[in-house]
Amino acid sequence: MDLTQGTTKEKKGRAKKMMLWFGIASLIMSFGGLTSAFIVSSTREDWLFNFKLPESFTYSTLIIFSSSIVLFISKKALKKEQYFLSLATLIGTFILGLAFIFTQFSGFNELIASGYNFTGPTSNITMSYIYVIAVVHILHVVAGLISLSVTIINHLQSRYSPSKILGFELAATFWHFIDILWLYLFFFLYFFNKIN
Q: Any idea which fold 8-195 has?
């Protein structure tokens, strides 16, 4: 497909999608680097094996996975011109995003209660990595929530229709990406711990 063909609006749409995918590719490399560093560091003598992931991380995984399903329903409803359902489920996705962050911080509290702080005499390199991985992901969830906020505002102003959905699609693509990213991170940490 020739990216130079089409109307100015179509070209701008393709450019925005390409910029998003470039951003996603860079994030994949960043998190790939983080998980690679986690693997390399596991050869240290002070590495903690058989650690237990916070139970709240399991809940947050279910929450963010559910949020993607709800957002998928929202997009389908928009395409069917079911605007109220689309808006309601979009807001539902935002609320689930907030719930995800809440359960992540609950997970940090579980780590602290187990005696593992991020830094200081009670810190451990293994748990410090888990803190970093989770916090960096939370920052991207916050970026996703900001994009969802803009999408909700635009939806309230009736800026979307089945033929005018680009902004919604960009926000949805990013949200689904951070969902898949967390699933990767959670199962990476879970199974890495199990096989070592």
A: Four Helix Bundle (Hemerythrin (Met), subunit A) (1.20.120)
